[in-house]
């Protein structure tokens, strides 16, 4: 009997929490199809007709194509930079047993404790001095710099699980060190590479503070920054704003829908090992 | 033999160099520069500046009313956010893991907010707080919702928590779920045969055996809550007045918005770093001791 009560209680709690989690998203979607007046008069009701006017207007006014493209540049530059640099460094640091090697590794790991907020002011200055301020590409490079430490940590741990004999067999077959890395080692690192890609994708795609500090022209803005500007500009017209919020979330939701299993696995592993 | 050692060192340096250059430029140098400027009165523009010793730190902690209230507000937020997020995430993980049906559906629902940008999803909440809830509170049943959710700092504190819970639970829930899946089945079965109630199961089997996940999740939430910015920025903008200003906002205000006290802002940033460092160190070393092996 008590088991039965427990089961009913469990469903009830889950249902209540599910309503809390879905409520804002449901409200945003429903109201994004209404006209401005309809939002004003009946927020809670369903839209009178399924019109996509708000969406086409938001798409044009917020210049979604351009800001979406900027976001892609930032994300791809950052991820490629992080994966390329960290896989090389993490692999080699894990394989070399010397005092220098463990010292360098310790330096990387210790820096994981530095909060971004502590260095943001001087980092902005550094980016400006290097000419990386004011372009999505430059932002991607800076992001790569901020992301290497954790990626190296993850690669370092993963490489320990790959038998050394593989390196040796590669060098015996006359493979140079670099060629051996790209042909034999890197393919073996793909599982942890995927974890690293997922974690950084979520960070880079959705980042706000660093882009705000480094991009100073609306033509360079990423999706999140564009939405932020849009929100300030059309704050009265909720129907339009909501359509822009939904529209800008679609890419990441699609990615999630296709790769859910790997994303969930990646996040759990990244957290447990990091 | 020595030539081989040199060769190994040389190849180590080659492999590590690209990452190390990035690391040096965007992490180490800004950190060192920040620490250096924190002892100066630099305004970010002038070529000259003076050394002021620890005066910035003294001013921040003793005389700066806004910084102190930002620290208290953030501290209060951290305590509630860490407790609520972990309790709800653990509850969800246990409940979902005990289901046989619709596991994936629930997992997707509760994880979804983590995929979205904090700025974008918080704007949805602004809509809920400023339009939907006022409309709801016109019905007698929801009369109690008639509050100034974003206009009164006392209430906004809870609005911020509500949104942070919504956006923060997903990842923690996944970590707890994978830890629960790792509990050996024979231990659960033994407990059930011995007639353990669900509560006793939780207290004596589940919690001790997922202690490592607790350490990680509390570490993650402590870290993210002290650094909170996006959410508060999008929801209240730190206002009304400075009623909901968090530490990171206060630092940015000092460095940019008109104040331009670069050195002083750096000192505050170092203080934030030290707070997070000390608290997470204590937390991890205390909780590591209590972990047990299955």
Automatic annotation (TrEMBL), chain B:
Pfam families: BPD_transp_1
InterPro entries hit by this protein: ABC_transporter_permease, MetI-like, MetI-like_sf
Residues annotated as transmembrane: 12-32, 77-96, 116-137, 157-180, 201-222, 262-282
Span of domain ABC transmembrane type-1: 71-283
Record family assignment: Belongs to the binding-protein-dependent transport system permease family.
Protein name according to UniProt: ABC transporter permease
Subcellular location: Cell membrane
Keywords (A to Z) from UniProt: Cell membrane, Membrane, Transmembrane, Transmembrane helix, Transport
Mode of membrane association: Multi-pass membrane protein
Source organism of the structure: Paenibacillus glycanilyticus
Taxonomic lineage from the root: Bacteria, Bacillati, Bacillota, Bacilli, Bacillales
PROSITE patterns: ABC_TM1
